Amino acid sequence: MKSSGFGNRACAVGFVVTMAVSGCKNESKFEFDTLDVAPAREELSEFSLGQFRIPIPVADMTDHKKRIQRNRMQLDFELVALVPPKEEAKFADDWERHEGKIRDHVIRVCRNASSDELLEPDMTTLKAKLIDALASQMGDREVRQLLMSNVFSQPL
C-alpha cells in the first residue's frame, strides 16, 4: 500500500495553524538575536582633524648579520574623530587651542609606527595609538572612534 504524502502535509499544516491560533510564540532564547534588529545605540558627530602628509622612515631588519635597510614612505590620509554631539562644542574648543600640538602628536605616532602597523588593512593598532595621543592632549573628550579616509601610501 502506497502512502500519498498528502496526509503528512495536511497534518503539518494543521499543527502550524493550531500552534499559531493557540498563541505559541517564537521567542528567541539568545540575547544577540535581538541585536540584529536593534536601532543604533548612539549618534555620533564627525569632527575633521585635517589632512596629513607624513614622510615615515621604515627600517627593515632581516638578519643580525645583514645591514639594516632603510627606506622611506609617505603616508597621506584625512583624519576624522567621531564624538558624541553633546561633546562636539568642547572638542572644537580644545582642538582650536591645541591643534598644533595634536598634529605633532599624530605625526610622531605615525613616524614611530612599525611597518606591520602601517601595513594592517584597517590600521587598527595605529588608530588606537592615535586615540591615546588625542586623549593625552585633550583630556577625557569622549573620542569614540577615529576614521582614516583617503589613505594613500607610497615609497619615497
Description:
The structure is a single chain. By secondary structure, the chain is an alpha+beta fold. The chain has 2 domains: 6-36, no CATH class; 45-155, Tetrahydropterin Synthase, Chain A (2-Layer Sandwich). The protein is 38% helix and 27% strand. The protein is built from 4 helices and 3 strands, in the order H-E-E-H-H-H-E. The protein has helices at residues 6-21, 88-111, 115-119, 124-138, and strands at residues 45-60, 69-83, 145-155. It has a 3-stranded antiparallel β-sheet. The mean pLDDT is 78.
CATH class of the largest domain equals Alpha Beta
Helix-strand pattern? HEEHHHE
Query: Main β-sheet: number of strands, strand sense, barrel status?
Result: 3 strands, antiparallel
Average predicted local confidence, pLDDT:
78
Unreliable parts: none
Question: What attributes does this structure have?
Answer:
156 residues, alpha+beta, Tetrahydropterin Synthase, Chain A, 2 domains, three-stranded antiparallel beta sheet
Question: What's the helix and strand layout?
Answer:
Layout: H1 6-21, E1 45-60, E2 69-83, H2 88-111, H3 115-119, H4 124-138, E3 145-155
Antiparallel strand pairs: 1-2, 2-3
Helix pairs in contact: 2-4
Produce a short descriptive summary.
This protein has 156 residues and is α+β, with helices and mostly antiparallel strands. It contains 4 helices and 3 strands.
